[in-house]
Structure of Uroporphyrinogen decarboxylase:
Amino acid sequence: MSANLRPTGQQPTATYESAFLKACRREPVPHTPVWFMRQAGRSLPEYLKVREGIPMLESCMMPELVAEITMQPVRRHHVDAAIYFSDIVVPLKAIGIDLDIKPGVGPVVEQPIRSRADLARLRDLTPEDVWYVTEAIGLLTAELGSTPLIGFAGAPFTLASYLVEGGPSKNHEHTKALMYGDPQLWADLLDRLAEITSVFLKVQIEAGASAVQLFDSWVGALAPADYRRSVMPASSKVFKAVEEYGVPRIHFGVGTGELLGLMGEAGADVVGVDWRVPLDEAARRVGPGKALQGNIDPAVLFSTPEAVEAKAREVLDAAADLEGHVFNLGHGVPPTTDPDSLTRLVEYVHTQTAR
Ligand SMILES: Cc1c2[nH]c(c1CCC(=O)O)Cc1[nH]c(c(CCC(=O)O)c1C)Cc1[nH]c(c(CCC(=O)O)c1C)Cc1[nH]c(c(C)c1CCC(=O)O)C2
């Protein structure tokens, strides 16, 4: 452990006792905590205003701007947790990979990584490479008070998918070609990414993040046997690397109904569930000893307030017997969402579950 580690239990008591962290620890809560994946971003006019003229990746390296954008949804929606404003490709950019986030497209990598020689371009990440993260989180913990901050990173498979494909991909052909065709190179690539991701999460926890989420957004493209053999060792390594801090570790992917048990087994304390599997069924698949996070279909937000409430009610009913439940969407907030529908949803969940 490095010298500036904040030992477990040293975070402010009010943060430790927040509804969000209690639910993650499967303790009784005053109300079901709510936050939204991608809550900090394009659905908010105040976000678009402060981001005007600043490219996405540049904005991630500006501590004051990061702190402001992270705070915006907390102020507006009264969510129970903040998520650090950044992107999963930030640590890759920080070690010198030539990539950009193209508006409306996503991360694009200039020279994809497909050979042993390419792998050498993935050097170690140091805390100094991402100094702006430490600085921004310092600003945030001061402003957040008792509201916990969630740090995050992309999981090795999802990062590998962007690096190997060179950009977003529907079927992950190059990624799977490498995974099946050169298992040793694949294992080495995922191991490298696990190292980088572990450092990135440690930096965030040491700076003051009270929980972390590992996004394996695209791993639902794999069958369980392939996940277990070719992905789980690297994801487990990341969870193990941050275990000593004692902060809740959340794991999420889209279309991962068949992988939920394995994703818990990989080392998550909280398993994120998309909208395709009801939470009671998800609990059966994950097994005891884990909290669940989810899982209203983000598309429902475009419907009437009554329809949103009805769907939220369904989610809460399915969650009634869970050991711990963090309310969330089944994936990120769509950019064209009416922010008021999110504010109303937070209020609905809070009032329906107040104990
Ligand atoms: C796969 C993935 C990425 N990034 C992320 C994931 C995993 C989550 C998921 O499954 O959605 C994670 C992410 N990206 C962003 C956050 C910020 C915190 C939050 O509010 O959740 C988080 C947690 C900001 C962002 N990341 C991005 C934006 C939009 C860029 C902008 O506002 O200019 C934001 C706010 C860009 C981005 N970056 C990525 C994509 C697919 C896109 C969208 C491309 C587009 O449609 O424009 C890669």
